[in-house]
Structures are given as structure tokens and as C-alpha cells.
Amino acid sequence: MPKISAPTVAEHRAAQRAALVRAGETLLAESGLGGVSPRSVCERAGMSRSSFYDYFPSLDDLLVAIAIDAIERWDAEIDEALVRVEPGLDELRAFVDATMAMTADGKHAIAGALREADLSPSRFDDLMALHDALMRPLVRVLGHLNVPNPPTAAVLAQGVLGAGIQLVSHGTDHREVARDVFGLLTRGLMG
User: Fold this and answer.
1) What GO molecular function terms would the record report (predicted)?
2) In this structure, which CATH number among 1.10.1740.10, 2.40.50.140, 3.50.50.60, 1.10.357.10 belongs to the domain 58-190?
3) What's the average model confidence in pLDDT over 76-96?
């Protein structure tokens, strides 16, 4: 039986799985999708290649786990950015600022790299459901602004935010983009 490095087997397994997810995310950021394989992930995590399949049935499952982890962190950061902000335009501004700052910090790069993955349809649907959950804060913010039909408005606003993310990802200053996105959204939503 292999030696465990945690107080319980469950904690050891959770730590090993987390190490594989972190290693996969690092490789994805460094080398893109082509650099992520069971072998490269296990090497980076300091584990034997056969260990991969103890934690993930397939590479798709690892990629989805990486995405889930990144989405959960993104969601938590957005919630933290909005927690002490008054509902209304200040809240929308904080949402836009946080989104663009997080993109500038490279936190959206994982999503871009994973878009290239040829995931099985069911795994892709799992990711889309998680991505849709990221719309909740925006829907809530738009509701506070009394925007008609906040879910539909959020999808439209997401298009503007996505364009801003693309600009920041290509090197435009995130503060400048946040200012422009906020202006475009407020003129479009309130005008």
C-alpha cells in the first residue's frame, strides 16, 4: 500500500487530485491544450503516470475539473468584489472593474485555452452550465438597476464584457477597457 501524506486516506486522495488539477492548469497556461496529457500532468505533479486514472477516468474529466476550479475561483472573486458595494451603478462598475482586472491578471486565460478542447458533448454541457452560473451576479446587478428582463439583458451585456475581455487579453489596459465597457453598458442599458 502506498504511503499517504495526510491524516486520512480521503484527505490524501483530495490532495493528490488537487495536485493533478493544479499541475494541469499550470501546463495549460504554459503550453496550451497540446501540453496537457496524463503523462505531463503526472510528471508535473510528481506522481506516477498510472496514478492519473485513479483520479480521472479521462483527460476530458481533468479538463472539466480544471475549468470547474477556475470558474469557482472567478465566481468567488466577483462575489468578494461586490460584497460591500451599494446596489445600482456602483455595483455594475465594481462588477466590470473586477472582471477586467481579473482578466488582466490572467484568470480568464484558462477559459480561452479550454475552448480549444474537443470535449465530449456531455462534458461540454457540464462546462456550459457552470459558465451560465457565472451570469448570476450580473443578472442580480441588472435587477438592482431595474433593467427590464435582467436574464436577457445579462446575455447581451455579456457580449460587451466578452469584447472587453478580448481587448484586455490582447494587451489593452484593463482600467481603460473597464471604463469603456461601463460607459457602453450604462448608455445601452439606461439610454
Assistant:
1) DNA-binding transcription factor activity; transcription cis-regulatory region binding
2) 1.10.357.10
3) 93
